[in-house]
Design a protein that fits this description.
The complex is a heterodimer of chains A (758) and B (424). Chain A contains 39 helices and no strands. Among the domains of chain A are: 185 residues, no CATH class; 105 residues; 89 residues, no CATH class. By secondary structure, chain A is an all-alpha fold. Chain A starts with 14 loop residues before the first helix and ends with a helix. Chain B is globular. Chain B has 424 residues and is of the alpha+beta class. The two termini of chain B are 47 Å apart. Chain B contains seven helices and 26 strands. In chain B, the strands form six sheets. In chain B, strands 8, 9, 13, 15, 18, 20, 21, 23, 25 and 26 form a ten-stranded mixed sheet that branches. In chain B, strands 2-1-5-4-3 form a five-stranded antiparallel sheet, with helices on both faces. A four-stranded antiparallel sheet of chain B has the order 16-17-22-19, with no helix packed on it. At the A-B interface, helix 2, helix 4, helix 6, helix 8 and helix 11 of A face strand 2, strand 3, strand 4, helix 2 and helix 3 of B.
């Protein structure tokens, strides 16, 4: 362990000084120490963001020195500035070429690696021949480096890479005797295959099996690349899927959590193609413990695991079914872990563990982080709705929390209480007086609206409902739309209950007048008019309509759509799985994934299949001649390429945006056609909307990845979200689909009445 | 894949910057500085803006940052950051601003080696050290032969071990280190108790030694095989790259060719039959709004031949505490106002003994409505030659073709730091 002493070189310097120092170093520089020092200073300045490119020719001069350390620094300089100096880069090419043919494999690899980092035509041109040699180098270290270079070349100049036959050479490396070469070739091919504008990369059973042989000997990173590529194998036969799964299942015992999660991704994928119930159960059982073990890694990896667990347990409910305890928050967990654990706890809660979960939630409700406390309180309410036998104790604990008089706790408690009333009509209305005592504490629209809903809905049981409403209406014009809507509906309800009360009459009149005359919001105004006419035409029928018995809400809508889940789980461990969004919806150019329908695909997965339509139409496979792991009877699954697609791909590349939007609409239709239950929920076109709704639509959820995503440049995503939010806020009732129902009902009734009346 | 790799200091200055793919410019560093370093309320280790995602890991006031432009494998990116940190530790000890600046050229060399075009590459520390050295290498013909040996190793099936290792005395040290996580309710019910175990090995063995490792006879690794009452049950275990997983799968033997030097052979987790070495009984009474009285008893719950050392008991006090009077028969107890805790330190405690602290906290009057959240009592300790899971190493056999004698040492340590909590 030797300590470097370079910190003193880490300071800003001037181009002139460095140039002079380099010049001085040309003479009398024993062991090249002077040159080394100047170069280090230059590298430090590159790091700090000082433009050192004017020193290009001076630095290149140093390539003559035989010190590897100096060569590496010069190469680093070239990687940083090579692109900006296309007119001078020819100076270094001879040196590159010489190094590519050095006897030392490390130098050969270094040279080809550095060249491929400089994506300008002169260098690429000089590199192609060298790369061809390097891909066949006798030393595996050079070959594994060259494999990645092909991916770089393809990124710079796909045509050149295809015409030069590099993709085929890469494919040949899939059967290289060296595991590292194999895994890098897989990584490079996967990247090229994900581009959607040229080569497709698929595996057949034979090659997939070969890759698995290399798996055991690969480095941990190599294992990730190989495992990941198995998504490109589409099983035609359930036996194939089962055999592959059995071969990789042990990888879940690996120390690297990325290997574990990637293995789980592949297992989840393969399970769609299995019909052996026993094996599926076995795999699910094996999956739990490794996931829990990841929770003793660093917090960042834990976070990745938790977000994925949330998806996995929805699709495979037996996984971790009895392990809710491991998700109890530690006092010193970072906030993002606590929030992620909270969601999992809610999801794993059921009658058997509800008591423990509730005890934990109560504990969290007394912590200091406001966001966390709010979600804990909300979870208590959700627990009451989800697990019927626990409802009593949940209500008790909410009441205790309301007694604390801490504003945000009380507000959150009231929001959930409203839902509990709807879930268990006629059971808990006794607590209304307690709620009413805290009216003054409410300052957030959502909480206020919830409280107003309660007052309106149960105006017949609250003696002083008219007084309360009168107070609340006082600031009507200053309130947010959400609260105004609630006030409007509540005052109508109040009037219907207490039509004899003078206050109620005045109140409803006042509110209706305001909404129809002073308010600009069309939603509010329209609803105002509707109520007004209802009341004017026939108050008795109006009462029947407004106070119609509401369907009890359930927690069914919490669960994500099965087809969407299947699709999302193909991204296990990646960013998409953290944000619970398909990557193509928030990352430009990201490749979407879907299950491919084959005879082996199991029935339910097929029914729920969500189709991703790629901007590019499916292309006809073209057979590539040459050696390689081609199997005569299954040619179509070998890596193929099509020359014609490169052109079309590039043409389409520019106009990607409009295409994407169309796709999404198609996707929506597809879903409707497939499952009738989606039809009911037309409001939530986004299949993930419901999941996010579990904890309400709070705008201030800082950790919520979507909030970060929505800053993205994907306008249509944003717009869609907004549309949805508006739709949600127009309703007076919480459960989206049902609300739509009652609303439509009342409109129908309204039409009928107006026909009769006029 | 990773498009750029940076290290920032606490002020947000870039001290390492390496772009790995052409889809990003260096100016992206400014975005991270604004979004994370100068943001006082960062609530996620991943931030996505547009298509660009920033992954960061903090270490000693440094930010190790990887930036991606695609749907990156998040677990891999973080594992890579962790690995980078552990490589740096192994090369120059501590990872802080000073040491990074002192070794920045070396770090660039390392980055160039362990990640290519954003794809993590072989990062076995032992192998890296054979060809990325702190002293200068002259590229000459003689080095070429040496290099091909290295490259074969760096890409081969046992990439973690050189073939020419020689020791005069062949020794292997095994450390079983267990961290106990406990969460106990105020009433003394165990809400959660688990053991996070690591088996660390330092192998100083010549040649290519084939090792076989044995744990307790009554060891249950798969929970579904339950049945034996007093057996040591591991919920899950994970192994170093060198352990043959297929062999473990079929015969439950842990066999491997170890890397040279120090490495983590295995990590495991256990939640059943956890033996809690320290018991805490706490009585905390709030006396109106003027004070809080504490009686906290610590009991050691293991063989009297063993002892716990470096005990630190942290007892929380309300935010408006002005002073705390403590009485302890053993160790030192002090009120630390900055953290709102009483810290009670005990150097050593014999097994089977107990000590009691009594204290009284005086409070000032306050206007805040919020009641005291009563954070838990936290205990840190170490107990040598004790495992909370009951795990024991039965044997470690070393086979080598020269069949030399080797000496093996085993140590056990059970500890807690920050995760042994008793609620009030």
């Amino acid at each position: 362990m030797s300590q470097g002493q370079d910190a003193k070189l880490f300071q800003r310097g001037k181009i002139q000084e460095f140039r002079a120092e380099l010049l001085a170093a040309e003479s009398k520089d024993k062991k090249f120490t002077k040159r080394k020092t100047v170069l280090k200073k230059i590298v430090a300045n590159i790091t700090m963001g000082n433009d050192m490119s004017p020193l290009f020719t001076d630095v290149v001069q140093c390539l003559g020195t035989p010190l590897l350390e100096i060569k590496k620094m010069v190469y680093l300089f070239l990687v940083s500035y090579g692109r900006s100096k296309p007119d001078q880069i020819h100076l270094v090419i001879p040196s590159f070429l010489q190094d590519c043919n050095d006897r030392n494999p490390v130098i050969r690899a270094l040279a080809i690696r550095t060249m491929s980092y400089i994506p300008i035509p002169v260098v690429t041109e000089a590199m192609t021949d060298q790369l061809r040699h390097c891909l066949k180098d006798k030393d595996p270290y050079v070959r594994k480096t060259a494999a990645i270079c092909v991916a770089k070349l393809y990124a710079t100049d796909p045509k050149k890479a295809e015409r030069g036959g590099f993709v085929e050479m890469l494919r040949d490396l899939l059967v290289d005797p060296n595991p590292t070469v194999v895994s890098n070739a897989v990584a490079a091919l996967s990247e090229i295959g994900d581009r959607n504008d040229g080569v497709t990369f698929k595996l057949n059973f034979h090659v997939a099996n070969k890759l698995l042989t290399a798996l055991g000997e690969s480095s941990e990173w190599g294992q990730i690349y190989i495992l990941d590529s198995l998504l490109r194998f589409v099983p035609d036969d359930t036996k194939d899927a089962e055999m592959l799964a059995e071969r990789i299942i042990i990888q879940m015992q690996h120390a690297n959590s990325a290997v574990v999660l990637t293995t789980i991704k592949i297992l989840l994928y393969l399970m769609n193609y299995m019909d052996n119930r026993k094996l599926v159960d076995h795999i699910c059982k094996k999956m739990g413990p490794p996931l829990v073990t990841i929770l003793s890694s660093g917090p960042e990896v834990q976070y990745v695991a938790l977000r994925n667990i949330l998806l996995i347990i929805q699709r495979r409910p037996t996984v971790l079914r009895n392990d809710v305890k491991v998700f109890f928050c530690k006092y010193n967990d970072p906030i993002y872990l606590k929030l992620a654990k909270l969601e999992i706890m809610y999801r794993l809660a059921r009658e058997e563990n509800a008591r423990e979960v509730l005890a934990e939630l109560e504990e969290y409700a007394s912590e200091v982080d406001i966001d966390f406390v709010r979600k804990a309180v909300r979870s208590i309410g959700r627990l009451a709705i989800k697990v019927k036998p626990a409802a009593d104790s949940c209500i008790q604990s909410l009441l205790k929390l309301i007694e604390t008089k801490v504003t945000y706790v009380v507000q959150e408690a009231i929001i959930v209480t409203k839902d509990i009333f709807r879930r268990y009509p006629g059971q808990y209305e006794g607590i209304i007086p307690t709620l009413c005592e805290n009216l003054d504490l409410l300052d957030e629209p959502e909480a206020k609206a919830a409280m107003i809903w309660i007052i309106g809905q149960f105006a017949n049981r609250i003696d002083n409902a008219d007084e309360l409403m009168d107070d609340l209406v006082y600031s009507f014009l200053e309130e947010s739309t959400e609260v105004q809507l609630a006030l409007l509906t509540a005052s109508v309800k109040l009037f219907i209950y207490k039509s004899s009360s003078e206050t109620a009459k005045q109140l409803v009149h006042k509110v209706l007048k305001w909404t129809t005359e002073e308010i600009d919001n069309p939603d509010l105004r329209d609803r105002g008019f509707m109520y007004w006419r209802l009341l004017a035409i026939n108050p008795a029928v109006a009462g029947e309509i407004v106070l119609v018995e509401k369907p009890a809400i359930t927690t069914d809508s919490d669960r994500m759509d099965r087809g969407a889940l299947d699709q999302l789980l193909l991204h296990t461990g990646t960013l998409g799985s953290i944000y619970h969004k398909n990557p193509e919806t928030f990352i430009r150019g990201a490749a979407g994934r879907q299950l491919i329908d084959t005879p082996a695909l199991n029935q339910t997965s097929r029914q729920m299949l969500v189709i991703v339509t790629h901007p590019n139409a499916p292309r006809a496979p073209v057979k590539v001649s040459g050696p390689g792991p081609l199997e005569p009877h299954r040619e179509k699954q070998a890596p193929v390429r099509s020359d014609t697609m490169v052109e079309t791909g590039n043409l389409l590349g520019e106009g990607n945006e409009p295409n994407v939007i169309e796709d999404e609409e198609e996707e929506g239709e597809e879903e409707e056609a497939l499952s009738p239950h989606v039809k009911l929920e037309q409001v939530s076109q986004d299949p993930y909307a419901d999941l996010d709704g579990v904890f309400g639509s709070h705008g201030d959820q800082v950790d919520e990845p979507q909030s970060a995503v929505s800053q993205a440049s994907i306008e249509d995503e944003l717009e869609r979200a907004q549309r949805q939010r508006q739709q949600t806020s127009t309703g007076s009732e919480p459960a989206k689909p049902k609300r739509n129902g009652t609303f439509r009902q009342s409109i129908a009734a309204f039409n009928q009445i107006s026909q009769l009346g006029l | 894949m990773i498009s750029a790799f940076f290290i920032f200091n606490q002020k947000g200055e870039v001290i390492i910057s390496r772009l790995l793919r052409p889809d990003l410019k260096r100016s992206i560093a400014d975005v991270f500085r604004i979004q994370v370093v100068s943001n006082s309320d960062v609530r996620s280790p991943i931030i996505t803006l547009g298509s660009t995602s920033f992954f960061h890991v903090r270490v000693n006031n440094l930010y190790v940052v990887a930036i991606t432009k695609n749907n990156a494998n998040a677990a891999m990116v973080f594992e890579f950051c962790y690995r980078f940190i552990s490589i740096c530790k192994s090369y120059f000890g501590k990872v802080d601003e000073e040491s990074v600046k002192n070794n920045f050229v070396l770090i660039y060399e390392l980055i160039d080696e362990i990640v290519d075009f954003g794809y993590p590459q072989n990062s076995e520390i032992d192998t890296l050290k054979t060809f990325i050295m702190t002293e200068s290498i002259v590229s000459s013909a003689t080095a070429a032969e040496e290099s091909s040996k290295i490259t074969t190793q760096a890409t081969g099936a046992t990439s973690w071990r050189r073939t020419d290792v020689k020791y005069k005395k062949n020794e292997a040290f095994v450390d079983v280190v267990e961290t106990v996580n406990l969460s106990m309710s105020a009433k003394g019910n165990v809400l959660r108790a688990d053991v996070d175990g690591h088996i660390l090995m330092r192998a100083y063995l010549s040649g290519i030694p084939e090792c076989k490792f044995g744990l307790n006879d009554k060891l249950v690794i798969d929970k579904s095989e339950k049945g034996l009452g007093d057996a040591v049950e591991l919920d899950d275990c994970r192994f170093h790259q060198c352990v043959r997983l297929n062999e473990f799968d079929s015969t439950r033997t842990i066999s491997f060719i170890p890397p040279d030097g120090e490495f983590e052979l295995m990590s495991y987790r256990s939640t059943s039959n956890v033996k809690l070495p320290i018991k805490v009984l706490a009585t905390v009474n709030e006396i109106g709004t003027i004070g809080v009285s504490y009686i906290v008893t610590i009991k050691t719950n293991f063989d009297a031949k063993l002892s716990a050392s470096n005990l630190v008991v942290r007892i929380p006090t309300p935010l408006n505490t002005t002073n705390v009077e403590c009485k302890v028969p053993n160790g030192k107890a002090k009120y630390v106002p900055a953290e709102n805790v009483v810290v009670w330190k005990i150097q050593r405690m014999q097994g089977g003994s107990e000590v009691t602290l009594s204290a009284h906290a005086t409070l000032t009057s306050t206007t805040s409505k919020q009641v005291w959240a009563r954070p838990p009592i936290d205990v840190d300790f170490q107990v040598l030659m004790f495992t909370a899971s009951g795990l024991i190493v039965r044997f470690l056999k070393v086979f080598e073709k020269s069949s030399y004698q080797s000496v093996k040492w085993v140590r056990y340590l059970t500890k807690a730091s920050g995760s042994y909590q008793i609620r009030l």
